[in-house]
Design brief:
CATH topology: Thiol Ester Dehydrase, Chain A
CATH architecture: Roll
Oligomer: single chain
CATH superfamily: Hotdog Thioesterase
Helix content: 10-25%
Number of domains: 1
Number of helices: 3
Order of helices and strands: EHHEEEEEEH
Structural class: alpha+beta
């Protein structure tokens, strides 16, 4: 994972996920690739809570493709564990979405994994946007008092 950046304001949302049998390997440990799906579930929960879901982005004729993802695995998640996955959006002056993720076992609060992702903004034809799209500017205004 990238070196941690200085603390920045953030807002977050969480979701719970039950580990399904098909997500574990022969040792009953969640296969590493599923963590990206868990991050996506938390990003969707974030978007729905704060009005920045993929449908909202598309309505503004922009896209937000993933350009970076990283995961640190700290302890295994097991078959049937209930996980709490948090997506934390870091405030940025750049035209991008930077998320941090925390995956905890709900039963004991143990931190199992942490991660990060970056999404750029593009026009629908794939052209990279260098300035922050109006949708994000509007969201930042709405979230002014929500930043931690």
């Amino acid at each position: 994972m990238r070196k941690s950046s200085p603390a920045r304001p953030y807002i977050e949302a969480s979701t719970t996920i039950r580990v399904r049998f098909q997500e574990v390997d022969s040792m009953r440990i969640v296969w590493h690739g599923h963590y990206l799906s868990y991050f996506e579930d938390a990003r969707r929960a974030f978007g729905q809570r704060y009005g920045l879901d993929y449908a909202d982005i598309r309505r503004h004729d922009v896209q937000a493709p993933l350009i970076h993802v990283g995961v640190d695995f700290l302890a295994p998640a097991l078959d049937n564990d209930l996980l709490e996955v948090t997506a934390r959006l870091l405030k940025s002056d750049a035209a991008k979405l930077e998320f941090q993720y925390l995956v905890r076992r709900a039963a004991d609060g143990k931190l199992l994994a942490r991660g990060e992702s970056t999404q750029a903004f593009t026009k629908t034809d794939g052209t990279l946007l260098l300035s922050t799209p109006g949708l994000l500017v509007d969201c930042y205004r709405q979230w002014e008092r929500a930043w931690k």
